[in-house]
Amino acid sequence: MHPPLTTELLLSAYCSGLFPMADPDDDGRISWYAPDPRAILPLDGLHISKSLARTVRQGKFEVSVDRAFENVMRMCAESAPGRETTWISEELIGAYSELHERDYAHSVECRRDGELAGGLYGVAIGGAFFAESMFSRSRDASKVALAHLVERLQAGRFVLLDVQMNTPHLARLGAVVISRSAYGIRLARALTVSADWNAIDTVG
User: What pTM was computed for the model?
Assistant: First the structure.
């Protein structure tokens, strides 16, 4: 048995460069990760295509924050083609929901016709935002959520957007990889920053 996932344990882990994942093949056993290299998305480096910029401008999705945190987590946990199992366990949903209640974990939601079409969630500590997962049920919905996240982090004077492990999808959006030691330096600096998640209310 692993120690309970308390908010204190989670916050301490993130401040040390660690994040948890549950193993669906091992009864949800929690393991802790600090990948090397580490993927980050420079806040001035988001790649927005012309079509995505047009989607944002046209307001095809209603963007909100922190209105459906647990629902976003559960939708991120749903199976998808090529991913039949998930590392997001009920234990993690409960633990991050407690972080959300304490104003450390946040979600960005995109709705279309009143229904959740995409979103993401993560953890904010100091000037660092640790993005955990995203989902999309409608074309470009998760990308619009990410564009809003970056705008919000810039407005709130965040300095680090951690996306953990790079994927071809994240790379196309501008994610880069740095060494674990370089990440540690950026993380230590970010934790000294007093950033404001609520600097803006809606996408511009």
Answer: 0.94
